[in-house]
Amino acid sequence: MLSASHNILMKIELKELKDCGRELKIEVEKEKVEKEFSALYSHLEKTARIPGFRPGKAPLSIIKTHFREEAREEVLGKLIPATLKEALEEKNLASIIEPAVSEIDLQEDNLKYTAYLEVMPEVKLGAYTGLIIRKEKRKIEEKEVEETLAKTKKSLLVEETSIERERQKKEVRKNLELKLVWEEMREEEEQLLSQLEKDSQLQVPATLVQRRLSEIASAHFSRLELTGKNNEEKEQIAKDLIEKLKPQAYRDIKTLFILKEIAEKEKIEATEEEVSERIKQITRLRREAKIEREPENNGEIKEQLKQEKVFEFIKKRARIIWKPEKKIVLAI
Q1: Which of 3.40.1190.20, 3.40.630.30, 3.30.70.1050, 3.40.50.2000 is the CATH number of 2-118?
Q2: Rounded to whole angstroms, what are the CA distances from 174 to 109, 140, 146, 180, 315?
Q3: For residue 327, is pLDDT > 60?
Q4: What is the pTM (predicted TM-score) of this model?
């Protein structure tokens, strides 16, 4: 879809691309460009120091030749942000990424450029209450406790009394039960996410997917054992990893916008007090683990808390269907 502005000082052509992409072709006309160059050269005429001329006495033609590149950069630095902001306001657009500017053509009486941006996708939510969580009653068997304890003893060469053995068994059982609770929570989350993603419709911003893919691929790659691999092998491993993780990156970003839409619809927010408390918890845990990192980003913490609250909202309104009870053995 194309549309054009009839602003006296600017012409705007808007083109809708796929996946939330938008392309703006902007032409800043004579009056605005000339005004910027005129103000800049007027200032330089009074202040510029050029060999062979006293300050304020160099001809304009010499000043233009001497400061051509500097003038170009300064005018672009003023006009592009200002006119792009005007164009976005006129077209009622808000970019979720920093707009990428290209095809810049600047003359002293004209400026043309192209800006690529991505807009917030329109989210058509499916059902998010009454979702189904399928669960099964599971428990840690004594056999698994014994096997885990035996492996621990073997790796640590532990010899203990009967009292010490009972203490260790209790500790092992506690750890296995905590692991089971964590796995059940992850399974519930996975089921809810699958239903939310399946039933909701939106165009997923391609740039954000690419950024997310880069993040998770880098994290996975850093954990791989690559000793003995040459550069060609490492590059192939990286390519395979990126290809494998593409669906996850796409789903992560799609889920992000679905949860944002639910939060907005249900007016779910994280308070400043909750953000402060979470930062304190993270700081305390890192101090105990002797981990040094950059201070937390309040905005990211707030979004994380909001997502957690949305999940809690959805989970409380989900229906639980119990599967037949069976024993389980966790992978160790």
Answers
A1: 3.30.70.1050
A2: 75, 10, 13, 10, 25
A3: no
A4: 0.75
